[in-house]
Amino acid sequence: MSINHHLDDATILSYAAGSLPHAFEVLVACHLRQCQHCRQRVAEAELLGGMLLEALEPLPLRDEASQPALLLADMPDMPATVDIPDSALSVVDIDWASGATTLAATGADVAQPGLHPINGLPELPDSPHQQPWRRSLILPEPLELLYQSHCYESSKGHDTISGHEALPWKRLVPGIQHLPLESSEGNLRLLKIAPGISIPLHSHEGSELTLILQGSYCDELGRFQAGDVADLDCDTEHQPITDGNEPCICLVATDAPLRFNDLLPRMLQPFTGF
Amino acid sequence: MYKEPDPQGTQYWNQCLMQLGQTGDRQLYQQFYHHFAPRLNSWLLSQTRDPILAEELVQDTMMAVWRKAAQYDAAKAAASTWLFRIARNLYIDQMRRAQVRERGKAKLVEDDTHFDDQPADASRVRQAMRDLPVQQAQVVYKSYFEGKSHQEIANEMEIPLGSVKSSLRLAFQKLCKALRP
Ligand SMILES: [Zn+2]
Q: Residue A129: closest CA among chain B residues belongs to which residue?
């Protein structure tokens, strides 16, 4: 999969800083999974974050009990050094499997080089993070199902997602279906657009990020295919047209709650004659 | 807000953390703690605006350092980057009340990023921050230190969303240049 459209640096920086709304964070994590270019960029922004941290004026901790000497008295000795596979030291770590499918998903992952469970580390019942420097994120279930049905990582690589038919899509207008996903901040939804559909010319008021999961579309900015992300400035006007033979499935994150609905009457226009 | 460079630079702390991982030396830990805990506290207080929560997150982060230092690799990341990631992840979890994750779940992204072994230095970044136009410095500050989204920054500063993004973009590029002159 070759990726031609990447995340904007402003998005990368905010992702690294941890300040993207949840909906955007999920989408960015999905793109990073496929894009080494953007992962490297995030690592730069994290390096910058660490440097800014070092440059901060120290603020002494108030609580006496927080002095390390006292803490250390209760602390067990440090666990012995263990070898961690290089690939386990990741910038992004997404919990892909839902509870119900943990076994299957884990089995598949173990088969991949460098993804063996780490043995010999003490359990930390008080911490959810086995590798606290890795970022982990739980995907909304429908998105998880899509990824599970699709072999992005497989070298044999299927080009289509089979699982999308099973999802409870809702028809928006003829040729366009959507599926709102849960997110704690911002709006996240899947869109499924039939081939040959033209979405009327529009610009964006808030931020909008689109990740193509399957199929493709063209607009003024070029052709967007699976893995590509459209990180548009809000004043960019565009008129995407889906092409190819299969539906275009994309993940869309927006931050203005009503923005998508504002767009709806205009999207409906060609179909309903409003 | 910014203070003069520590005579012991970034490389020193990378080595310190490596050594801590290898030896489990408590005095080394103390030294690392005294350098970073108050800085983490600064950062987390500006993020959380809650002194008690900030200190709790500092403790959690420093505990993770003690427990996980053996897994730190200076060739992969600067110590401050590693620490920043841990603190940020804990902060995000705290804010989102993320569900408890089970061990052994999918690990999806291979770490093919690398730490360019050029001596990146906090003092150069500090200087580069000073040299930024006010608006660029503000958007960076609000992103890294206050956890504000692009839209929140636009609202607060009463500037268009597009200006927030272009300021962040420009600042990021300048600061990266300062990291690798
Ligand atoms: Zn990319």
A: B101
- A1: contact with B, CB 8 A cutoff: no
Q: How far apart are CA B147 and CA B46, in angstroms?
A: 9
Q: How many CB pairs under 8 A join A and B?
A: 308
- Our measurement of the distance from residue A178's CA atom to the centroid of its chain's CA atoms, rounded to an integer in Å, reads 18
CB under 8 A, 24+ apart: contacts of A65-70: A66/B37, A66/B55, A66/B58, A66/B59, A68/B29, A68/B30, A68/B33, A68/B34, A68/B37, A68/B62, A69/B30
The model's pTM: 0.80
Measured N-to-C along each axis, helices B122-131 and B134-144 cross at an angle, to the nearest 10 degrees, of: 130
Q: How far is the CA of A39 from the centre of ligand 1 (A)?
A: 7
**Average of per-residue pLDDT values in chain B:** 84
Whether A203 contacts chain B with CB within 8 A: no
Is residue A146 within 8 Å of residue A38, measured between CB atoms?
no
B44 interfacial to chain A (CB closer than 8 Å): no
Domains in chain B with CATH codes: 10-96 (1.10.1740.10), 111-179 (1.10.10.10)
Residue that the structure tokens 């928006």 belong to: A172
Q: Which residue has the higher pLDDT, A244 or B5?
A: A244
* CATH code: domain of residue A212: 2.60.120.10
Closest CA to A252 of A203, A219, A213: A213
Pairing of strands A92-95, A135-138: parallel
pLDDT digits (tens, 9 = 90+) for B32-58: 999 999 999 999 999 998 999 999 999
CA distance, residue A35 to nearest chain B CA (Å): 9
Within B11-142, strands assigned E span none
Q: B22 and A81 in contact by Cβ < 8 A?
A: yes
